[in-house]
Amino acid sequence: MATRLAEGGVEAVKAGNYAEGIAMLTEALKERAAPLWHLERSKAYLRTSQFDLALYDAEMALRIAFDRANRHQMAEAQLRRAITLFRMGRFADADICAFWATRLCDGARAQEDDGQQNKVDGNGDYTVRAQEVKDGARPSEQPSGSGDMAAALSAASQHSKELRLRNQALSWRLQALTQMEQLAVGHDGRKPHVSVKYPEPSQPSTTGNAPHDSSAVDDDAGGESSNTANAPTATSGRDAWERLWIRYHDMYAQQRIRCSFYQNETSLTVDIFLKNLSLDKVAIESEPRAIKITPAQGVSLGSYGGAIMLLLFGEIKPEATKYNVKSMKIELILQKKTAGKWPTLRCDNADIVDNLSISPSQGVSSNQFCDFITALGYKDIRELELPDFDRDCSAWYSALLEKLRSRVYNGRDTSSATKTDVSTPAVPTPSQTKESAERATDVPAANLSSSAPSYPTSSRKGPKNWDNIDDEGGDEDPSKNGDVNSFFQQIYKDADEDTKRAMMKSFVESNGTALSTSWNDAKSKTYKTQPPDGVEAKKWD
To answer: Where is the composition biased (Low complexity) (predicted)?
Structure first.
């Protein structure tokens, strides 16, 4: 009974029905305590601005996970605790808890005495800074090398979860410290208050934490309700815009799309990393200062459901635009109207409204967002006329981007803009045969864009075109994104029967420490277990 209630509560929270989710999870928790149920209820409380209750649930989940010695759930609970403290404006405490989450992901002892909460100056202000965290951040990647790769295959799923969790915690550390550094010296948000890594939480008072009516719209959701009609200060002013930014930032983090570009004097190549798309699933339109990518009905661009509008720094020739829709990305080849290097791909403030993340990027800060949105002339959140966030957060986010994007786009000089459908894609049309389609999708971008300068070299292979260096690798390698399991599945799926036999024989005989794709080598060879350096192979009865 408790499990069914909890499952229903989790689904309700995912659907944005927070009041229903809280009620079902509360009933389930009366029968049995479970860290995951507390974490889900904490999430629901947080999204209905019931911060004390959200913090209580996060700390309860942490305590139970600690008592059960479940390291992964402990890390998840510390991160949930950090996010809640961030929402409460306790930025120093948020960084400390996020730091503890990263230490758990790194394999540190659960009761490690790291003294993070004691890093304060004479005034009691926390002394850790965002730049210090950036400088000390190490890349989180899968092990490399044939032995390491094969060993990682057997535990790819769990390892990938740890990587994602650690990277999330690191991201929240940077956000918390960035916000903290904007506070005045001596502000309470700069002072650590958490002193216990695994507290014994006490049930908070529900005063001021009554569950929200699911039919009402929160002040920072952008809609009107009977609770806010007579309270203009709740939907205007800096605090209101910062609350809006918190929701915006959460949705951006969930739905952002990775993007990269390179250029020469006359052209740009833009890679937008989206998987499992094809020509019939997207429509691409080119204008002098913008590229619009619209998904077909029922198709999502990654986790983002809206259209992508890339607002460019300078003008291009729309009729010369070409594109490739590959298995891992959309590749755009753009011809500049005027020759010369651009200082950046996008126009000012485009990073706020296009949902694209050009690496390296930490996203948009609250100050940048608030200054931008108030400069557009909005005085009150209700003027945005957004959908109910709690009912459909994705629709709310898409509507917000579209509203802000229209102000940016319409405020630019578009007198010479004439919308042009791209009619000469660099990929095959559906009428082409499969064989010709495979050849067409493999056409390198270098053949589609104008020539770029090459430089003197002593290499026997001749001069290198450094502007097209990214093309040489073909489609993005899934193994570089930490998804080793998918990488090997793809190799096995596309292999012939001999290769499959070789992979299976070598992997099974070596207990996952070797992987061969040559049947000529594998058929007469017996593979021994060869664990990576520092790892000991054990036999289990």
So the answer is: 449-459
